């Protein structure tokens, strides 16, 4: 799995070429301040500061002397994240340094985007990373940005790995490696021991697969407020007996994206030594089909004691999360977070790039919204809409895992999970974890969502 230090800045003492980044509204002043040859060349290229690829500048003898890149106007800057990362793939190999009147947030975004532009998933095919490297910009916390970039690379590697090579055991191996890096404590409840230890819904979802279900339980830190992260680790989701169509199976290797994102977030927390008591719970299962698979209309009794009617075996993620959440809340964490690739309804509502989150705590929501904008990791608050609670109450059992009607699916899933969240502060993220097409710093494929926003918000939320 990924080297936690593979994405790194160039040495600060390297002989670096300048990359001038310029807002469109500042393009005139920038041109006026350039030597005649450079100004003439840029004007001949039609450079106006509009968003686009960098333009090379020539020095004595025709050698590359630097480059200029337009950031566009305010509308363009709002529409595209990590614009400067485009330069990493376009500039010639060598060491570069950023020049320009950037805010602290723009500088950090550019630095992180440049590192993320170097990500390649090369487990099955050799690929070459860009040769243009960046010196960490003055004023940025270089180590913190490297930690975030490599944690995101770890998340992407886990999601991108096909299910044949990323089952529950392999997901456990990734957590073991992380625990060893940070001297964390890890336990695993495996197979039928899930029943003995009263985790029946995790067992019910995973029992049909020959790859044994398990609950991974990592703990780190001995002081500070307690944070528990619960990530959905469904390593492949056939839909169970409510089998998905062929088209619906194509992305199901990413159904452990919640676990992968939680692992990346935990890596950020531990690598930066955030003063918290961290717990990570990952129910790792494969939702398969066999003679002992759970059936539609089965009624399961959860760890919390609530009964659940299974009205769709393809709504399995909330079942495994519920048992893990009940276990988490027995320790009364100060903050409980769930991350899961849970519903298609979230994508219908907000699309692939904007994951919803749910919380009843306005202070947490304010901190998250501010952090998300600051670090360009967009999330959007959705409501725990109490009026929909009757939809998840089937009558024959306490809860319905898949209420009919076809509306508000992300909200009713969140309401289901809230029934198991006996914590003073709870946040649920319904993430997608898939980049549909290439974008700056985000190649097509697996991607983390919400982790950087939450990581940036934690100090304000927890007072650390």
Automatic annotation (TrEMBL):
Keywords from the named record: Aminopeptidase, Hydrolase, Manganese, Protease
InterPro entries xrefs: Leucine_aapep/pepB, Macro_dom-like, Peptidase_M17_C, Peptidase_M17_N_1
CDD domains assigned to the protein according to its UniProt record, in alphabetical order: Peptidase_M17
Pfam families given in the database record: Peptidase_M17, Peptidase_M17_N_1
GO CC field: cytoplasm
Domain Cytosol aminopeptidase: 312-319
UniProt GO BP: proteolysis
Molecular function terms from GO: manganese ion binding; metalloaminopeptidase activity
Domain of life: Bacteria
Similarity annotation: Belongs to the peptidase M17 family.
Entries under PANTHER family matching the protein: LEUCINE AMINOPEPTIDASE-RELATED (PTHR11963), PEPTIDASE B (PTHR11963:SF20)
Protein name: Leucyl aminopeptidase
Native species: Gemmobacter megaterium
């Amino acid at each position: 799995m990924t080297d936690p230090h593979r994405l790194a800045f160039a040495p600060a003492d390297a002989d670096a070429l300048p990359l001038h980044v310029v807002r469109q509204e500042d393009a005139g002043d920038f041109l006026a301040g350039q030597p005649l040859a450079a100004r003439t060349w840029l004007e001949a290229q039609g450079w106006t500061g509009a968003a686009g690829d960098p333009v090379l500048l020539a020095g004595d003898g025709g050698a590359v002397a630097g480059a200029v890149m337009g950031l566009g106007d305010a509308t363009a800057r709002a529409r595209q994240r990590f614009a400067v990362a485009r330069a990493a793939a376009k500039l010639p190999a060598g060491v570069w340094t950023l020049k320009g009147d950037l805010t602290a947030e723009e500088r950090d975004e550019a630095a992180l985007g440049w590192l993320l532009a170097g990500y390649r998933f090369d487990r099955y095919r050799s690929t070459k990373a860009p040769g243009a490297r960046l010196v960490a910009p003055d004023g940025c916390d270089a180590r913190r940005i490297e930690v975030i970039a490599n944690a995101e690379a770890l998340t992407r590697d886990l999601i991108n790995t096909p299910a044949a090579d990323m089952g529950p055991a392999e997901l456990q191996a990734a957590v073991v490696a992380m625990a060893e890096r940070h001297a964390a404590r890890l336990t695993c409840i495996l197979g039928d021991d899930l029943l003995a230890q009263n985790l029946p819904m995790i067992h019910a979802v995973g029992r049909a697969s020959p790859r044994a279900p398990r609950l991974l339980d990592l703990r780190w830190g001995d002081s500070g407020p307690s944070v528990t992260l619960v990530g959905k680790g469904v390593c492949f989701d056939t839909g169970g007996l409510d089998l998905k169509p062929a088209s619906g199976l194509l992305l199901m290797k990413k159904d452990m994206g919640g676990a992968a994102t939680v692992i990346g977030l935990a890596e950020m927390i531990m690598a930066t030594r955030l003063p918290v008591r961290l717990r990570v719970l990952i129910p790792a299962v494969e939702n398969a089909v066999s003679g002992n698979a759970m059936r539609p209309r089965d009624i399961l009794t959860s760890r919390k004691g609530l009964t659940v009617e299974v009205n769709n075996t393809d709504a399995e993620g909330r079942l495994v999360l519920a048992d893990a959440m009940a276990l988490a809340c027995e320790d009364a964490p100060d903050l409980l977070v769930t991350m899961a690739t849970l519903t298609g309804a979230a994508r219908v509502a907000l699309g692939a790039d904007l994951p919803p989150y749910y919380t009843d705590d306005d202070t947490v929501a304010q901190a998250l919204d501010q952090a998300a904008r600051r670090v360009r990791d967009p999330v959007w608050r959705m409501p725990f809409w109490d009026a929909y609670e009757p939809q998840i109450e089937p009558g024959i059992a306490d809860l319905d895992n898949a209420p009919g009607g076809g509306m508000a699916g992300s909200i009713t899933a969140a309401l289901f999970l809230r029934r198991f969240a006996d914590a003073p502060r709870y946040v649920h993220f319904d993430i997608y974890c898939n980049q549909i097409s290439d974008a700056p710093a985000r190649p097509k494929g697996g991607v983390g969502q919400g982790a950087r926003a939450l990581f940036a918000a934690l100090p304000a939320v927890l007072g650390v």
